[in-house]
Amino acid sequence: MAIAGVAWGFYTINGKSSDNPQQDTAMNFLYSVGFCVLLLPLYWFNEPLNVTQQGLLLAIASGAITSGLGYWLWYRVLPAFTSLSAGVMQLSVPVLASIGGMIWNHEAITLTFVLASSGILGGIFLVLFSGYLQSKSS
Fold this sequence. Notes:
The structure is a single chain. The protein has 2 domains: about 1-80, no CATH class; about 80-138, no CATH class. Helices cover about 80% and strands about 0% of the residues. The protein has 6 helices and no strands. Helix 2 runs antiparallel to helix 3 (about 55-75).
């Protein structure tokens, strides 16, 4: 997870200078295919490959479509934010993903979720609001 977080940080920094978010996102997905192909034999040694049509369609839908659109949108709006604001807003992703799970998978709302989400969203608010106050006083 730490490596993924660092990679996402570099992805975001790179995206701030993107002139063509759609093309850049498409190329990033193509680059990732190479890594997947290289790592696929490691998987085959541990598990036999069992691909179903439904599984393949769900993988395409979640990977290429929803993630691709999300990354494209992120690159599209990124120039409007400071690096600090963009980094802090990314902390909301686990909360949003959890809410999605509650809506579409009927997952339970727990006290742990409410407390953790309140802490995350409260921290985001404090950072963004303090930046707003600093810009107003300047």
